[in-house]
Amino acid sequence: MSGTYLGMPAFPKAAHEAVHNTTLRGNLRHATHTIRAKRANAVAEMSDWAELREAGKQIKDHTLRHLDRYLVRLEESVQAAGGTVHWAADADEANRIVTYLVKATGESEVVKVKSMATQEIGLNEALEAEGIAAYETDLAELIVQLGKDRPSHILVPAIHRNRGEIRDIFAREMSEWGRPAPEGLTDTPAELAEAARLHLREKFLRAKVGISGANFMVAETGTLVVVESEGNGRMCLTLPETLISVVGIEKIVPTWRDLEVFLQTLPRSSTAERMNPYTSTWTGTTDEDGPQTFHLVLIDNGRTDTLADEVGRQALRCIRCSACLNVCPVYERAGGHAYGSVYPGPIGAILSPQLRGTGSEIDSSLPYASSLCGACYEVCPVAIDIPEVLVHLRERVAQGGPVTERGDKVVLKPAKGHAAERAAMRAARWAFGHPGVLRTGQRLASRTRRFHPRTLPGPGRAWSASRDLPALPAEPFRDWWQRTNGGKETGK
Amino acid sequence: MRVALFLTCVNDTLYPDTGRAVVKLLTRLGVDVDFPMGQTCCGQAHYNTGYRQEAEPLARQFSDVFREYEAIVTPSGSCGAMVRELYPRMGERARAEGRGDTLARTLAPVVPKTYELTEFLVDVLGVTDVGAYYPHKVTYHPTCHGLRSLGLGERPRRLLQAVKGLELVELPGADECCGFGGTFAVKNADVSAAMGLDKVRNAESTGAEVLCAADNSCLMHLGGTMTRLRTDLRPVHIAEILASTEEEPLK
Ligand code: SF4
Q1: Considering Cα of A152, then A155, then A159, then A164, what sign does the dihedral take?
Q2: Is A442 within 8 Å of B13 when comparing Cβ atoms?
Q3: Which of A269, A403, A404, A456 could cross-link with A305 by S-S, CB 3.0 to 4.6 Å?
Q4: How far does residue A225's CA lie from ligand 1's centre (Å)?
């Protein structure tokens, strides 16, 4: 995945900053609570939501089970429609292919449709290193790009910014990249949108190469689909002479018919709209209409390894609606950047450690970035049991175990820094396995209760920094039960 | 009816009052309650922290201790969810790992017989008015595992509404997690504390005297936040409210 985030600290450290940044918390709280309520309404309107969710899950599972077959089918269909298919095993290979394709056109500028896949592989940075400027045309992406910032949400990458901050970024940076912001720009949404529109229009009309991702790829026809709200994506898909689409291999569906399900569940889950304003589909090339050259770059980048894991593979069903981010109480407080990946929130916490492995500090801490409250699972339109995968990945981190790395089965050792915890878990299990031991411990604790502090030393200090521990009771329940014969004799 | 009380290790050690309340309440409703001494912990903390290997023997032990009873009642949504939702999953995982059906077969008998307290009252005993008296203003926090894993729904609220003298007020953002999450409270203390604080503030905004829930772990986290804030709000387990009567009111 993108090198941008390498060397990130573990989640708790990154989240510490965010929790104490009141502007950020205010922005996030406002944004997530608004969309949360809207989504709930949009979903409640559909009497068959449960069936749609189940259908989405099944279509995705079926496709993943036969991914090899459908990918071959897709390649044939794209070629038959006049496109070229390229296969990239990892981010570097994908970046090399795209850079080569852009250079072959003789251009040094490209316009981009908002795409998670190109962010995942760090394409913009790779292009820049080769002297190619990539312009983001999605409004929120533009804000992030102009602000020399990182996206913090799947759908609304600039969710961490408020209007005032956006105005300042536009006024300061637009001239560096093209048409400057109008004089005296205020922070009203209409003025900000107009400034962006004028700035972007120039880019659209000049661009010879467009780069996009896709929400779906239809195997039977070789059609790619992008859904969006602004229409800027459609401009990039239709105006340039060459179109390069970079898409993860899991984005495939077998037939057009399957889109019926997702075109209902995706907009309601993501923007709480009944239908997204723009649904663009393109199939290869058509004479004298739209791009005359079309390349599809299919990226693996850890996906087939993820597919090999029985529990974790369900993360590949994700349609990137971001509903799980918007309901997540941890995301709301920690902010998107703490997740150290273009995929933040609950889905990021299970996807990144699978795509990248659990080797780094940030990746091994992500499975713990959840209270397992289950709100993410409840809203997920393809029923990804995120808590289940989180616990599965915690097991991988804490205990090690078999994983697939670049197609090879390997056995991971437990991650560093878990020895004390492991020892404590074993000791607790041993005590719990011997009720007599537990009882002795309880009694000892009760007898010495006057000496117990209400704050803790060591790793427990973090807990007691903001909360008091409960006072120990004089007598554990089991002693009371025995003393009173279940409350039948003496006392209460 | 002879049922076993599964009190959970947290309640046994830290909240014996909740256990006594369950015994008092069920006895009042004509249930013969037993507390099998061999019980300890369901293994949830181990399982959820990534120590499934350590959780498995605890699950087996749970099954050995409880399998002969007609019903197993627990005053904890999350430990109830551990047995009902995660024991079957542990069985499936063992099978997927080529270890056969032994674990699944061992755990199967206790799974459908395990009930969270409010579920047991409403679904098995068929009562919503348990004859309780508790003249206080109360707000109810559903807790995540009770709400989403067990689907307790309106049961706890219906029980509370039937309590004489009790005024139930809606908690804003009731569905939101309190931030406890077991080891999450330690591993991600900042986020956890921020979540707890918001929950307590929401509860305070209702003007209630009591924040009630069906899980002492969540209440421990919230109670710890409350004492730090020196608020007048106090945490009370639903079993203690339901056990309270005019003759023997809960202090
Ligand atoms: S995991 Fe589910 S809810 Fe989250 S972004 Fe993916 S599809 Fe949406």
Answers
A1: positive
A2: yes
A3: A404
A4: 18
Q: What are the tens digits of pLDDT across the range A188-220?
A: 999 999 999 999 999 998 999 999 999 999 999
At residue B54, the pLDDT reads: 92
Cross-chain Cβ contact A486/B40 below 8 Å: no
Residue from B94, B51, B92 nearest A414 by CA:
B51
Angstroms from A328 CA to nearest CA on chain B: 9
A323 lines ligand 1 (CB under 6 A): yes
Find the farthest-apart pair of alpha carbons in chain A and give their distance in angstroms, rounded.
94
The full set of domains in chain B, from first to last, is: 2-124 (3.40.50), 137-243 (3.40.50)
pLDDT the model gives residue A467:
82
**Residue B165 in contact with partner chain A when CB distance is under 8 A:** no
- Over 90: is that where the pLDDT of A143 sits? yes
**Is the CB–ligand 1 distance for residue A324 below 6 Å?**
yes
CB A280 within 8 A of CB A237: yes
**B37 touches A at CB < 8 Å:** yes
What ipTM was assigned to the predicted interfaces of this complex? Answer: 0.96
Does the beta carbon of A382 lie inside 6 Å of ligand 1? Answer: yes
Q: How far are the Cα atoms of A116, A135, A482, B23 from residue A485, in angstroms, in the given order?
A: 63, 76, 5, 11
Are A437 and B62 in contact by the 8 Å Cβ rule? The answer is no
Q: Please name which of A156, A164, A108, A159 lies closest in space to residue A131, comparing C-alpha atoms.
A: A108
Q: Kindly list the distances between the CA atom of residue A67 and the CA atoms of A72, A218, A322, in Å, as whole numbers in the listed order.
A: 9, 12, 24
Q: Which atom of ligand 1 is nearest to the CA of A321?
A: 8
Place of tokens 């995929």: A343
Instruction: Report whether A109 contacts A206 (CB < 8 A).
Output: yes
Residues contacting residue A434 through CB under 8 Å, at least 6 positions apart? none
Atom 3 of ligand 1, residue of closest alpha carbon: A380
Cβ count within 10 A of residue A424: 13
The H or E element that residue A424 is part of is helix A419-433
Q: Taking the CA atoms of chain A, what radius of gyration do you get in angstroms?
A: 26
Residues of chain B scoring pLDDT < 50: none
pLDDT in tens, A429-474: 777 777 777 777 777 777 777 666 666 656 566 667 778 888 888 8
Question: Positive or negative, the Cα torsion across A313, A316, A318, A324?
Answer: positive
pLDDT tens figures, B169-182: 999 999 999 999 99
Neighbours of A20 (CB within 10 A): 11
Measured distance CA(A318)–CA(A343) in Å, rounded: 11
Residue to test with chain A: of B54, B184, B200, most A Cβ within 10 A: B54
Chain B residues with CB inside 8 Å of A400's CB?
Answer: none
Q: Which of A371, A377, A486 lies nearest to residue B179, judging by beta carbons?
A: A371
